[in-house]
Amino acid sequence: MQVPFLDLKVQYKEIEHEVLPMVTEAMAKAAFVGGPQVSNFETEFAEFCDSKYCAGVNSGTDALRFALMAVGVGTGDEVITVPNTFIATTEAVSQVGATPVFVDIYPDTYNIDVSQIEDKITDKTKALIPVHLYGQPADMDPILEIARKYSISVIEDACQAHGALYIGRKVGSLGAVGCFSFYPGKNLGAYGEGGAVVTQDEETANKIRMLRDHGQAKKYFHDMEGYNGRLDAIQAGVLRIKLKRLNDWNQSRRKHAAYYNDLLSNTEGVRLPVEADFAYSVYHLYVILVDDRDGLQKLLNDKGIATGLHYPLPLHQQKAYGHLGYKQGSFPVAENAAKRLLSLPMFPELKPEQIEYVAESIREFID
Ligand SMILES: Cc1ncc(COP(=O)(O)O)c(C=O)c1O
Question: Ligand 1 pocket, 235 CB below 6 A?
Answer without folding.
Answer: no
